[in-house]
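Sample A.
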Amino acid sequence: MSAQKRRESVISAAIAEFAITGYHGTSTATIARRVGVTQPYLFRLFPDKKAIFVAALTRSMEDTRRAFEGAADGAEGGERALQAMTKAYAQPMSTRPETLLMQMQGYAVAADAEARGDDPIGGLVRAGWMRIRETVHLTLGTDADRTAGFFACGMLGNALAAIGLPPDAGRQGSVLEGRCVSQHPPRRAG
């Protein structure tokens, strides 16, 4: 296997491991075992654990952004784009929750890093989130309320998934069926 393919394997394994046990609870030995390489080889691919975490977090955020972009391609904004992006987000939440949970771990690490003055992780999370937001915002026709509603419902879905509740847990499950944003009250005229 080429070094690039092995790097990709490490990133995938890191997403799965960090999603479950977080940055501090995940060892590089665990990631190396999951990939089937030695720790020294792992450190030939990445300089340290933080670099592995950054690569995993970057990948998970970019995967989310691309999922939104791809889902809305050709939907020409509006309700169809909204429904397509909601479906695109709900599908990985139920079949590949590690992508979502990796992002949640990234938010936690960013908050901790900010408190300690370690801004690069916080900057990475902010930049990744802004790219995701921009993709959604432009797709929805640059309606700030609709964009905010989409993310509010998405964060509700994130919280449900993070605490292990099923998507249909009460009324809030509608976020995963594409109804949350459409239930958002319309803006008042004037």
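Sample B, a different protein:
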Amino acid sequence: MEDWRDWLAPADGDQPWLGHDPTPRIERVGAIIRLWPDTDSQEGLPVGIPRARLPEPLGSVRDELVAFLESVDRWAGQWFPLVYASLVEKLDEGRAISAPLPESRG
């Protein structure tokens, strides 16, 4: 969740960090981005995502995170009225939730 915005990178031709073993990788084939589950294994099929459509699910992720932030705001405002604004601000800042998504250059 911390690096959710890094998933804009494949749309622009870059490679986000995909984590530890198994060794996933992203391959760009024309207008398609293929996500391979394990580079070191011959098992598993890639998931193909049209590069132009990648920002769409990330917009949905952002919408869900904004809704989560709003829920935290309501909950913390009720239970911790003196510090809730700071809590919400730190959550937003740390996860870059409310900032708009950039336009894709891909």
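Observation for Sample B: The mean pLDDT is 85.
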